[in-house]
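[Automated response] Your request has been received and processed.

Submitted sequence:
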Amino acid sequence: MTVEVAKSLLCVRLVVCGVLLAIEPAMAGTDSIPCDKSLHTRQVAQLLFGRNVVDRIRVSESDWSDFVAREVTPRFPDGFTVVDATGQWRDARRGSILHEGSKLIEIVLPGAADDRAKIEAIAEAYKVRFEQQSVGLIIGPACVRF
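Generated structure:
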């Protein structure tokens, strides 16, 4: 490794560390609002499912309903929410912005030791069944009441 490459890598590392240090205090406050007595602290998972394969809708409403009945309901029988959505991202290969019909499932996790394994199993089943490259996943704290 040349001195110039080493200096460049050090600069990149310092910039990344500086960004992370600048973000950390802001992120630390994101979960600092305590739940009041009427709410329970829980984790909420959001799974983001694209419906297209090669720019065409591959997952019909019937396919989706069947997937939810077979893969999601048995793992989280206490309930979840499904929302129709539209995803947007930049396709690096084409250099263009793409839009795609999507589904979002939001689950208030029961707090079981296997919650994460169940979520991963749902995502993997979707990728295999519908030839998807990925399923988006967001997990965060929440104050909930039902």
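Summary generated for your ticket: Helices lie at 3-28, 61-72, 115-130. Residues 3-28 form the longest helix (26 residues).
If you did not submit this request, please reply to this message.
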